[in-house]
Write a structure and sequence with these properties.
Blueprint (H helix, E strand, L loop, with lengths): L3 H30 L3 H27 L19 H28 L3 H31 L4 H11 L9
Helix pairs in contact: 1-2, 1-3, 2-5, 3-4
Length: about 170
């Protein structure tokens, strides 16, 4: 049976992961409306990844005998000033998610829950990747000024991105 503090923290994380999915879906819709289908695709892949993360936490909690308690998902933002602003928000959001996961890791260490600690190693590595990807795109957008041929090239590059569920 999982510790009650960890159960609550993981339930909070499940909600955060599904909110993340909802936020990225909103960003995808924003990009579709801006006639940037590649950027929209990039965000739809993010949406799928976040759903996968939420389900991974949900399944883990159930496997450990915890009670999954789904909460309402907050309404995401749906308007931004620019493509750059979308990715700056993406980076800030991923930093927030990293902090949440680190908090669960702290609780797992305090409670000496090695199974949860092991689960979180994958998520901690994933967050390094998520933040790095957002930072890379922000730097590219700044280099090209967020317009012109560079935007077209990025849009085409992002159109090729696909979601492949990780083998864990």
């Amino acid at each position: 049976m999982i510790n009650p503090r960890l159960e609550q923290a993981i339930n909070n994380q499940i909600n955060a992961e599904f909110y993340s999915a909802y936020l990225y879906l909103s960003m995808a819709a924003y990009f579709e409306n801006a006639n940037l289908p590649g950027f929209a695709n990039w965000m739809r892949v993010q949406f799928e990844e976040e759903q996968f993360h939420g389900m991974r936490f949900l399944n883990y909690l159930a496997e450990r005998g915890g009670r999954v308690k789904l909460e309402a998902i907050e309404k995401p933002r749906f308007e931004w000033k620019s493509v750059l602003e979308v990715f700056e928000e993406t980076l800030e959001h991923e930093k927030h998610v990293t902090a949440l996961i680190n908090n669960i890791a702290d609780i797992a260490e305090e409670e000496k829950d090695r199974a949860t600690r092991n689960l979180l190693i994958w998520f901690i590595d994933e967050q390094v990747e998520e933040e790095g990807a957002a930072e890379k795109i922000i730097n590219e957008l700044k280099m090209i000024g967020g317009e012109g041929h560079g935007m077209l090239m990025l849009d085409r590059e992002f159109a090729a991105r696909t979601f492949v569920p990780p083998v864990i």
